[in-house]
Fold this sequence. Notes:
- The protein is an alpha/beta fold.
- It folds into 3 domains: 3-245, Glutamine Phosphoribosylpyrophosphate, subunit 1, domain 1, CATH 3.60.20; 253-444, Rossmann fold, CATH 3.40.50.10490; 453-592, 3-Layer(aba) Sandwich (Rossmann fold).
- 36% of the residues lie in helices and 23% in strands.
- The strands form 5 sheets. The chain has an 8-stranded antiparallel β-sheet with strand order 3-2-4-1-10-9-11-14, covered by helices on one side. A 6-stranded antiparallel β-sheet has the order 5-6-7-8-12-13. The chain has a 5-stranded parallel β-sheet with strand order 18-17-19-20-21, sandwiched between helices.
- α13 packs antiparallel against α14 (428-450).
- The longest helix has 23 residues, at 428-450.
- The radius of gyration is 26 Å and the shape is globular.
- Fructose -6-phosphate (F6R) binds next to α9.
Amino acid sequence: MCGIVGYVGWRDATDVLIDGLSKLEYRGYDSSGIAVFENEVIKVAKSKGRLTDLQNKMNQEGKPIGHAGIGHTRWATHGEPSDRNSHPHGGGNVTLVHNGIIENYKRLKEFLLSKGRVFESDTDTEVVAQLLDYYYQENHGNPMDAIIRTMQELEGSYALGIVFADFPDKVYALRKESPLIVGIGENESFIASDMTAILQYTKNYYLLEHDEIAVLSKKQVKVYDLHYQKIQKELKIADWDVSAAEKCGYEHYMLKEIHEQPTAVKTTITPRITDGLPNLEECGITPEKLMEFHKIHIVACGTAMHAGTVGKYVIEKLARIPVNVDIASEFRYREPLVSQNDLVIIISQSGETADSLAALRLAKKLGAKTLAIVNAKGSSIAREADMLIYTHAGPEIAVASTKAYMVQIAVMYLFAFELALANHAIDEQECRRLTALLQETPEKIAEILEHKEMTQLIASELITADSLLYIGRGLDYALSMEGSLKLKEISYIHSESYAAGELKHGTISLITENMPVIAIATQQKLFDKTISNIKEVKARGAKVILVCREDYTPEQDIADYKFGLPDYDDLLMPMLAVVPLQLIAYYTAVHKGTDVDKPRNLAKSVTVE
Ligand code: F6R
């Protein structure tokens, strides 16, 4: 979704803004723009398309030169992607950039039209700029009064970066719901939607809270509440290395992130294991607490929801507690049956997904205990949940999630082991055995990554397909959902995941020689049954790609290609089997020449519902 960067200091502001925006490209966008004070006059440049389009435009028309300004990448919501609708937007003295949605913009626009204001774009953002300028004029040129007055009127979620023509050495910033941080450097300060945008300049930052307003100048940053009271902010230090947000020699972030999975798993689970047993006490989770829960709801979106589906199979199998998995956008509107003895787990990489955040708030309102499994430190979901397990994947830049999924399922395992032990559904010896197996998965994943050539060959077979099926049973079915989503989102090839045993109840009619099937068969108890289902599709002409254990040699009537996995415990196989599925999706997209890291229409952090 939209990205915001702001700067005031001694560097070339345009360079800092463009550099910061390039780090936010992964969030997804369709236009971009900047506003920079040049000789105390605001100069705006904006363009539909990629940042390179904006840069080309500035090369032709002149790049603003100055030391303070704001920048934006826009993911269209109100109004088509166009130069006209790109941010920054202005109104008289005010120029601003916005992330989020102003829900009451129509009413506010009517009010402003009645005051003779003229609009140049279709956006809700321009309404904010005009309203702010309206109050600025009314308040005789006092920015803070005008900002506070405007915030009283706005409904919805927003983060804003603002400059006033009368104050060329200042940048104003504020947030409600949508995230925004303030970076503190040496004689310079920054605003950004997330840390990756400014990591190369500073690691020191303030996390702006809801309804806080920051006033940035070269020498200092002051933060106020809505009553104009100064707030003492805690200075935080990002523990990410600059290289975490760089490609480091990989062709794409996605490939780099796939390769980071062994380390991400190790970093996530190691601090949560004591004497060979899971220990989630630092996350606020104790065996006593776990015994209180009668039922678990896992609520999330997309890939995170797929991680929750793996979690359901593992928790139900080991801990014998019923688990519902819900899509957050459904959960929040269907009056879910959640009671005070239930635990609601929200899984989110970004910690800012609008539907997942709303689901969390609803669960709390219904009296359930909530646990967040989140990657982004200090995000809204992380801060609002009762209990919190951070995944330590580091920044995930590629829109298609890989390493975040991997650590989400790693945490699901740890949680399930601890819960099963607390409920006496497994004994300590079994818990130790499982925990030790989990600890060995990073090596196994690394082993698979060393033998990935087969996935390239498989991908070259898939590029001509219009549609694909992913099938599996049990945990393999849970995994097939993620495999299918990965392929669709980056290669633009349609695919569906199906429970292998369900195929013959309708979907098998789609099978022809033009419909390749990726079959996952890692679950030994279900193996023969899955193989029978594979034979059914093979007999109808489908090309079959089989993901199974290395030691199984399929006959010709079963598979055309096989990706072999190391032998491992059935329960943990998803952590291994997802790797070839990610790689098949990745190489298919590469062969097709799509924009792997920034697939069309997608945004990394979905902060609108
Ligand atoms: C797909 C993908 C998305 C996200 C979903 C939830 O690769 O990344 O499906 O999983 O938008 O995002 P978070 O985890 O940030 O809540």
